[in-house]
Amino acid sequence: MSKFKALTILFAIPFLLACSKKQAPDHTSIYEEIRHVNKIEFASMAVTKTVKTERTDWYKVGKRIAVYSFDTYLKAYIDLYQFEMENMEFDEENKIVKVTLPPVKVEIAGRDMEMKKEYENVGMFRTEIDSKERAKMKEKASTELKKELEGNPEYKQRLEDTARRKARSYFENLFKNAGYTAYIRFSDEITDGGDYNIKNYD
Amino acid sequence: MIKALKYILPLILAVALAFLGWQFYRYFQKPEEIEVFPSQLGDIKEMARLCSMEIYNEVSILDTVNSKVMFAVQKQSGSISFDMENMQIDDSGDTIRIVLPREIVEVYESNEKNAWEVIDTKAIGPMAFLRSNKFTTTEENRVKSKIKAKAIRRLYSNGTVRQARKDAVVNLTRLMEGIYRKPVVVFDPTPDGCLK
Questions:
Q1: B126 vs A18: CB contact, 8 Å cut-off?
Q2: Would the pTM of this model clear 0.90, i.e. be above it?
Q3: B31 close contact with A: CB closer than 8 A
Q4: Is the ipTM of this complex over 0.90?
Q5: Number of Cβ pairs closer than 8 Å across A and B?
Q6: Cβ within 8 Å, pair A115-B74
Q7: Is B51–A39 a contact, with Cβ atoms under 8 angstroms apart?
Q8: Residue A181: partners with Cβ closer than 8 Å, 6 or more residues away
Q9: DSSP per residue over B49-90, as a string?
Q10: Cα–Cα distance between A194 and A186 in angstroms, integer?
């Protein structure tokens, strides 16, 4: 009898150890920063990064390949804190206004929290891909994206051009509703070339 | 023969050990087998959104999905903005009247270094030691969508959205007064915001 008891206890120990209490979801803020801003966003673009992990060797049985993707968002905006009343010259007689807008800036707003599974092939004898590995893959993809953005100004340029066009049409319409014909230019266009480079602006 | 074996066996053993050592060396020296493909640019979306608040958050996450627990730390970035193209503007009178639209609350994972750091995962419940403690992509995404929903709810409950709307009223009034050159009144029908 005592042998049976001992065996029962011996077998029960791992089960008892394994049965831990279910954790209640807890999302606690460690650090929080709120910034008061005054921006108008005129264009946004999603950039998709795709990342692959593959660990295959002749001595390993089965494949271990996974491909994931996620989007990172870029935004083009003007900062209205840099926009003063002096940036608008009104000609009441001709109902014309000349507006100099602050330069268009581009920033990375953030990236998708979720990762999209594009492909996964993990053999029976291979270890599953875990969260730490996926986090590492995401990190590497984000670092590569930053490098691409720094090394290739064309990425930002496309977004900036669209934002400029949109800002122009938006403010032109707004002033039109107010009864003015608006000629819009951007402050960086003046300093860049001396030539305003705006067909409507004399 | 035995004499010959005495010399050959250690030699074979040495070769085998060297081969194994070389394989171990290769295994540990192997560069990361993570390949990042060139970026694919999506379509550019045009908009006119007044952004009055930006948020930066670091949160610790303890969550359970399918009897698996995850503890992680995430850096979040977000903004609260307003669609200026779908704003009601009444410019028929001496005073311009504008209705502040519904806020657009966006929360992303930050693009900073180590924005998503998984500290540990474990399996819980009966027979936990027999089950995998690894989260699948779907399970991990479930945790993340909960984090996002919680972060947005928090912005409403802690008054951030309310403050963003207040700021937007001030900023919009200033901008529109400059454009219309008339008194402007921005009306906010939902000062606490409108959580979907």
A1: yes
A2: no
A3: no
A4: no
A5: 262
A6: no
A7: yes
A8: A94, A95, A96, A97, A175
A9: EEEEEEEEEEEEEEEEETTEEEEEEEEEEEEEEEESTT-EEE
A10: 12
Tracing tokens 């008891």 back to the chain, one arrives at A5
Write out the residue range of the structural domain in which residue A102 sits.
35-193
The total number of structural domains that make up chain A: 1
B96-152: pLDDT as tens digits: 999 999 999 999 999 999 999 999 999 998 888 888 999 999 999 999 999 999 999
Where b means 16+ CB within 10 Å and e means fewer, A80-93 reads: beebeeeebebeee
The answer to whether A130 and B134 have CB atoms below 8 angstroms apart is yes
Is residue A10 a part of any domain in this protein? no
Q: Please provide the distance, in angstroms rounded to a whole number, between the alpha carbons at the two ends of chain A.
A: 104
Amino acid at the residue A23: Q
pLDDT per residue over A154-185, tens digit each? 888 999 999 999 999 999 999 999 999 999 99
- Residue A78 CA to residue B49 CA, distance in Å, equals 10
Residue A81 located in a structural domain:
yes
